[in-house]
Each structure stands twice: as structure tokens, then as C-alpha cells.
Amino acid sequence: MSVTVSFKDEDGELGPVVVIDHDIYDKDPVISKNNADGSVGVPFGYKPQGLTELGWLTRRRALAVAAEHGVTLEEW
After folding, report:
1. Confidence (pLDDT) at 22
2. How many domains does the chain have?
């Protein structure tokens, strides 16, 4: 399973955390089409398969989620 966990710093130590299972996400029909077209992003309001939004968490909790998945936290 190819997973990424990302954290966007919005408030020093708080921010939204997203987990993406790329084995599922990359096969989503809208994502596949966007990738083929060279598009970036997800259409507003669309919830792709394999994407889980965990809401706002602390950086420490985001690091723990990444560790649970055995990956390094992507911060931006």
C-alpha cells in the first residue's frame, strides 16, 4: 500500500491532516482523468476514493498518524 500523510501548518502547531491511499486514489476516475490531462487538484466538492480528511490536528498528532502508516509526514 502506498500512503501519504500530509499536514498543512495553519496556526503554528495546528492544521488540516489528509491521508491518501494511492493504490485507491490514483485509480479514481476523476483523478485518473485529471492526471491524463495534466490537471492539478480535485474539482471543488468532489471526494475522491482513497482520500481521508482527518480535520485539524496538532503537528504532534499528525506525526503519530504518519508513523501509524509507516511513512514520513509531508508538511507544507
Report:
1. 94
2. 1
